[in-house]
Specification:
The complex is a heterodimer of chains A (517) and B (305). Chain A contains 16 helices and 19 strands. By secondary structure, chain A is an alpha+beta fold. In chain A, the strands form four sheets. In chain A, strands 1, 8, 9, 10, 11, 12, 13, 14, 15, 16 and 17 form an eleven-stranded mixed β-sheet that branches. In chain A, strands 4-5-7-6 form a four-stranded antiparallel β-sheet, covered by helices on one side. In chain A, strands 2-3 form a two-stranded antiparallel sheet. In chain A, a hairpin with a 3-residue loop joins strand 8 and strand 9. In chain A, helix 9 runs antiparallel to helix 11 and helix 15 runs antiparallel to helix 16. The radius of gyration of chain A is 26 Å and the shape is globular. With 305 residues, chain B is mainly alpha-helical. Chain B contains 14 helices and no strands. In chain B, helix 1 runs antiparallel to helix 13 and helix 12 runs antiparallel to helix 13. The relative contact order of chain B is 0.14. Classes of the chains: A alpha+beta (517), B mainly alpha (305). The interface between A and B is large, with 77 and 73 residues.
Chain lengths: 517, 305
Amino acid sequence: MMSNNKFLLALFLIVTLLLAACTEGTNVEGDSSSSPDSDSNAANSGPLVIGFEADATTLLANHDVNYTTDTLIRNIYDPLIDRDPQTAEFIPVLAEEWKNVDEKTWYLKLKEGIKFQNGADFNANAVKFSIDYILDENNGSFYRSRWANVEEVVVLSDYEVEIHTSVPFPSLIQRIAEDLLIMEPGYVQEVGIEKASSEPVGTGAYTFVDWSRDNYLKLKANEDYWQGKPKIEEVEFRIIPEFSARMSAFMSGEIHLFKNIPVDSVEQFESDEVKQVSSSRINYLALSNLVDGPLKDLKVRQAINYAIDADELLETVLSGNGTRITGPLSKLNADYAETKDYRYDPELAVKLLEEAGFKPEDLSLTLDTPSGRYPMDSHIAQAIASQLQSIGINVEVRVNEWGQHLEKIQKRETGDMYILGWGPAFDAQSTIENLFTKEAPYSSFYEENIEKKIKETNQLFNQDERYAGYAELQQELVEQAAWVPLWQQADLYAVKTSLSFSPRVDEKMNVFEMAWN
Amino acid sequence: MLDFIVKRVVQVVIVVFLALTVVFFLIRLSGDPTTLFLPPDAPKEQIEEYRELLGFNRPLYVQYAEFMKGAVHGDFGESLRSGEDALGLVMARMPATFQLAISALALSLIIAIPLGVLSAYKRNTLFDKASVGITVIGQAIPNFWFGLILIFIFAAQLKLFPSSGGGSVKHMVLPVITLALYSVSRFVRFTRSAMLDVLSKDYIRTTKAAGTPTSTLIMKYALKNSLIPIITLIALDLGVLLGGAVITEAVFSWPGVGRLLQQSLMNRDFPIVLAGVFIIAIIYAVINFITDILYAYVNPQIRVK
């Protein structure tokens, strides 16, 4: 009996020792992703660690249309044109200036003396190469759909290019700012796409160090960066899909920054560790007139606008984390114009329904919603249903998986109403053209005159005429009650106080703009 | 014996084929992935064009036949998102998953077998009751919850271990414990009942009566015999663990196959999902195959059947 106990004791001791060997002080090869010090004073010496929900799918620029991919690689590659982090106005980066030569030609002058991280010169060839990468069918870039109107990129000199389009393309500058990042042609040709996809070279503020998929991406400061040496030496993007794990990693000081605190978890953070910015991403309730049903009737759509109290939804379900909108564009949008606000008026709603020939009790509507795509989306849907219920309208809420939700919208198989978000949206065209025309995949609304006006306005090059055209469209769309506009989302960031960070309105995270306090 | 092995190999092939077929059609139920790849403002013609480029416009049976043709040659195509070789991406994750699975299995065996033996030997004592009680709780606790609790205590509060990621032994501790919890509970219960069974056998009583010391009795006579059925359990568990412990890998951001599959499923990156299923099905089938052979070797009766 005694020897048996000894045996067990020995086993437990071994286990304990094994575990102890794994704790503090274990010198493990390659353990460079160990936690940065939680002590804010010591944090300056270690790398900045940013938590992300998902990883980039590739590190090649101009390929995958994906928020995470784009946000990560924007630290390695530079765009030609960027947006101001707060006002979203265009600012020159690698391009110095740009103008229309005629309706189908854009001219860009590039900055001189800029080098890629491998020492190669940045010039017009790199711009042509990067755009051609998107346009070449064989590359399968998912950006090509947005660039289909570009016919050719012509190199005029080392630092001048012209972009020729097949139709007038006033929003090309937006495409350049939002999509295009400049790759090093020599490097990509030399090592091939596959290697360039995992070991990228750009002109950006940070150079590539190491990428362990779904684990981390490590970068270090580009000492010779043309805009000056970055203030933060090393940065690691760490992939932590689970929110609770991300929160724990933040609390323990393993990560310094992450985006998307769920609105119902904000209270768990210290108030000085939460930063908020009004996103250009808007959430709305589409009142579809593309599916058969009572919402083809204008009065019914208007009645629903009067019957829903968006302010109350924002206050109660989102705890105020959002900014109300009344029309299809947010105030961050360059083409924003003030529109009529349907105030909450249930009596008027009932009256309008009766005028349209409906008794509220006879009306049965369906509402499609994704779950977890937008802040509290399915809760919002339930709350909307109950507000409509209070005037007697019967609403059935259907919760969809995200891919399925999109497919339903495209195939016009949604219920009468659905919840959707749109953004980043900084110009009218990309919102209005895509959401209020007959054929656009995610559209919910069609009206002949409005569509005609959209097409005319899109082609206008004169800024004032363009603005006036979109302003009128915004008023008409609100008058037509095409949506119940809800709010701009609030982007909520958890930020350690040791880090100086201002959230950008376009949701990007450029480490070059950050510094240790 | 050769006949037996050939039969089993044929079974492995059938299992892998069926697994791929079922998964191929199941993931298609989630719809056409093209729209998720393109920007939301992509016009209809573009969506159609990509559908054609990616081959999703063809009838499902044609897509299936193409896929199977490739699969037979070990070609699962390229990732729809990044264009890299799908099988290569899955294989690159195998070491991390192996590391986690083998460690978790080793830890659970080291803990569970002595505990099970002792429980059986001290049947109906307080020790036995406590150990049975704890194992019931161990089996009942959801994996992800236990993982999060460990993260909260040991990473967030005590700061002893990193909460997530891979790359070092330190990173392994919490996920290995989480993963081992369930196996430990199963192994303890199984070892205990197998031991009880053996301990009640006549030959044990005879050996005991002959004055054999308790440790020899347990280690040499009882444990050896009761371990045979446990082999099956170990094999099954290893199969499950190697299949990528999806939830544990997600909670701890462990960069293994489970995470890759989960992520690829969310991204609708079908080639990666299918390549992953292929590898997992093969591993599972091969482990079962080896177990059967071992069994047949140990117990000739199985061969005859």
